[in-house]
Design goal:
By secondary structure, this protein is of the alpha+beta class. It folds into three domains: 1-59; 65-152, GMP Synthetase, Chain A, domain 3 (2-Layer Sandwich); 153-221, Ribosomal Protein S8, Chain: A, domain 1. The chain is built from six helices and nine strands. A three-stranded antiparallel β-sheet has the order 1-3-2, covered by helices on one side. It has a three-stranded mixed β-sheet with strand order 4-5-6, with helices on both faces. The radius of gyration is 20 Å and the shape is globular.
Length: 221
């Protein structure tokens, strides 16, 4: 497998995105070196594209289903203890679904207010809870944590909505031949968009900007 490639494009972001796609890795798994910044010439003379090298950094071996089951059990045990100490009545269950190990948290109380607080505004509390759980799983198993903590199917619904919206925008771009830029997203959400748009003919995607304002641009081919 190729571990490092060099690519050029009109912008650094486009060059990096092209290299990541070819290597089949995420931004978190790669080391990027900008060899040349883009430059506009005078009347088209002396212009230059951005040139980058992208190298696979720390790329873990693919986790087996047994690995994921172990991670799910560790995550569930940790979350059960954490929620119990918080005085929250909830059921925690690991579920392997579509190649993803979800750790579902389902409220058992008379209302869903506690679960809403755990999700937080725009899912921010849930994201923090997931990152904390992943740290614990990594420490206890010695593996890179690949679990997804979900509360009352919030992330599944979010994923479905995001994929549907990406396909809708992509279809519009294919008809209008006008690029459209989506709102800032985290790496997981951007990957969902890239994958969803890849199934729509006549369009392509690239990421633009710096974290946390990095976003996906959908362009016509």
């Amino acid at each position: 497998m190729v571990e490092e490639i060099q690519r050029s494009a009109p912008s650094v972001e486009e060059a990096v995105e092209a290299a990541l796609t070819e290597l089949g890795v995420s931004e978190q798994e790669a080391v990027v070196t900008v060899l040349q910044e883009p430059r506009q010439g005078v009347l088209g003379i002396g212009s230059q594209e951005a040139v980058v090298t992208v190298r696979v950094g720390r790329r873990d071996a693919e986790a087996t289903e047994e690995d994921l089951e172990e991670q799910g059990e560790v995550a569930a045990e940790f979350l059960e203890g954490l929620l119990s100490r918080m005085g929250l009545d909830a059921e925690v269950e690991p579920v392997f679904e579509g190649g993803t190990m979800y750790v579902d948290v389902l409220g058992q109380g008379p209302d869903d207010e506690d679960m809403g607080l755990l999700i937080g505004r725009h899912g921010q509390t849930l994201e923090a809870l997931q990152e904390l759980t992943r740290v614990v799983v990594g420490q206890r198993t010695g593996m890179r944590a690949r679990i997804v903590v979900d509360i009352e199917d919030y992330k599944r619904r979010q994923r479905s909505r995001l994929e549907a919206r990406a396909r809708e925008v992509a279809a519009r771009v294919a008809r209008s031949h006008q690029a459209e830029e989506l709102e800032p997203m985290n790496p997981f959400e951007r990957k969902l968009v890239h994958d969803a748009v890849a199934a729509v003919p006549g369009v392509q995607t690239a990421s633009r900007g710096e974290e946390p304002e990095r976003r996906v641009v959908i362009r016509p081919l």
